[in-house]
Amino acid sequence: MIEPTPSPYENSRLESLRSLGLLDTAPEERFDRITRMAKRLFGVPIVLISLVDANRQWFKSCIGLQASETPRQVSFCAHAILGDEALVIPDALLDERFHDNPLVTGDPWLRFYAGQPLILPDGSRLGTLCLISPEPRTLDEEDIQLLRDLGKMVEAELGTLNQAMSCEVTGLANRRGFFALGRQALVQCRRGNSPATIVVLELEGFKSPADRLGPGEGDRALKDFGTLLRNTFRSSDIISRIGDDEFAVLLSNCNEDQSHSALARLQQATSRRNRTHAHGYDLAFTAASLACDASQDVSLEMLLNAVGDLVNMNKRIRQIGSTPPMGSPELNR
Question: Is the CB of residue 285 less than 8 Å from the CB of residue 202?
Fold first, then answer.
C-alpha cells in the first residue's frame, strides 16, 4: 500500500475546510439528496461525500457504509484530492497503491473506486464525491462527466455554506460562522485539556468615516481592521466580525496573559497603520478578553456575553477618564 502524500497547500486547504464548520455535523438532506442520486445513476452500493481532514477522512453524507470516518492513511480520497480530475480505480487489487489496503482486503472489500475532487473557488480541494463497489468496473467518458456534474452540485452547496458563514466586506467569519467554528474549537480544547480565550473588540467611531467620507470609506475601515486582526492573531484562531462594528476572536490553547500580549501587538499595529495611512481618520478600538479552562462547562454564548459586558465596561470607564481594566488595549499604549 502507498499512503497518500499531503497536499502542497495543506495548511490553507485545512483552513478552508474547517472554516465551513461541517466536520462532525449531522447529516443534511441537501447533501444526502446528491448521494442518493449518484447511487441510483451509477448502480453502486456505496456513495460518499468525504472530507479529508488532517488525520482522517470524515463522511458528510454516506450511503451503504456504517462507518462515519476512516484514517487518512488508508483513504482513497486523500489520493484523489491531489488532482483536479476524477480518480478512477477499476480494480484496486491490480493497483500497487491499493492492493493490500485494509479497505480492499477487508470490509467493505473495495475493488472499484471513483472519486471526483470537491474544489472551492479558492482552489482548495476539500474531499470527494466518491463511488465504491466490491465488484470491478470501469467508467466511460459520459460516466465521468456525469460524476463531475454531480460533484459540481456538491461544490455549489459548499460554496453557499461558505458564503453564509462569511462577512462579505472583510472576508472574516460572520456571527454564524463564529458560533459554528467556535463550538467545535471549544470541544477540542476540552478534549485536549487546554485553555481557550475569547476576545471581543469594538471599533470606536466606526460610523464617522462613512458619515463624513461616504460608505465606501466605512468598508475600507472594516477591511483594514480585519487585515490587522489576521496579521496579529494566529492562523488557528477563529477571527470574525459579529456585528456592525464588533469583532470576536477565539484563541485555542491560549490563556488570558497571552491574549493581552496579542492585544498589545494589535494596538501597536493599529498605531503604525494610523501613522502611514492618510484617509482622514484613525482606527481605534476597545477590547476585553476572558479565558476559560477545560474544566469549565460554559457555552460559547455565555463566554461571548460575558466578555461583551467587559467591553462595555471598558468604554464607560474610558468615558469618565479612569484607568482601563485588564483586557483593554489602553493598558498597552
Answer: yes
Segment 240-252 mean pLDDT:
92
Pair type for strands 56-63 and 69-71: antiparallel
The H-assigned helical ranges of 108-246 are 141-164, 175-191, 207-213, 215-232
Is residue 209 within 8 Å of 220, Cβ to Cβ?
yes
CA distance linking residue 72 with residue 54, whole number of Å: 7
Q: Phi and psi dihedrals of 84, rounded to 5?
A: -95, -25
| Measured distance CA(80)–CA(86) in Å, rounded | 7
Nearest CA to 83 out of 42, 50, 119 is that of: 119
Spatial separation of the C-alpha atoms in residues 50 and 128, rounded to whole Å: 5
List, for residues 186-199, the tens digit of each pLDDT value.
Answer: 877 887 788 899 99
Please, are residues 285 and 201 in contact by the beta-carbon 8 Å criterion?
yes
Domains along the sequence of the chain with CATH: 10-164 (3.30.450.40), 175-332 (3.30.70.270)
C-alpha to C-alpha distance for 105 and 93, rounded to whole angstroms = 9
* Cell reading at 185: 474549537
pTM (two decimals): 0.69
Q: What is the phi/psi pair of residue 89, to 5°?
A: -115, 100
pLDDT for 168 beyond 80: yes
- The per-residue DSSP string of 105-144 comes to HSTT---EEEEEEEE-TTS-EEEEEEEEESS-----HHHH
The number of C-alpha atoms within 13 Å of 58 and in the hemisphere containing its C-beta is 14
Render pLDDT for 293-326 as a digit per residue (tens, 0 to 9): 877 778 888 889 888 888 888 777 666 554 443 3
